[in-house]
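Entry:
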Amino acid sequence: MFNRRQTLGALAAVSLLTAAMPPAAAEMKHSGIMVDAPFARASASPAVKSGAAYFTLHNNGEMADRLIAVEGDAAARIELHTHVMKDGAMQMLEIEGGVPVGPGESVAFEPGGNHVMMMGLAAPLKEGGILPLTLVFEHAGKVAVQVPILGVGAMGGMSHGDHSGHKMTE
């Protein structure tokens, strides 16, 4: 068995070695992704079983990333969607493979464009409420976002300016 002095010496050596090692990729992957101006629109009626959420992603990091999924308990299915013009009509399609966000770039999720589509809502989205969502990135991992629910016809959320309001969790 080690005595107290040997145990403390071993712990000190491990601490020095750990401090000298470069950070693992998992530790580096969180830098840079910010979520700005999130909002969702309130449900038009209790009979409506779908909803959408919007925001702007900013990649202030040095490596490209990709939003690959969105998780939450608000709906049976949550998907990344976009609108495209096809055969003279606007159609909504699921985005296959996620949404890339290059270093120094921003990507808007907005009405009429990319958005988070929630199908099979557990309850109507009520104006003034908060919708918790978790954005899942290929490299940055999970980013928890508290999405304010605005009026039925809302076109934008409030910007946080410095983008510090949404912390990443794993």
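The beta strands are 33-41, 50-59, 65-71, 75-86, 89-94, 99-101, 106-109, 115-121, 130-137, 141-150.
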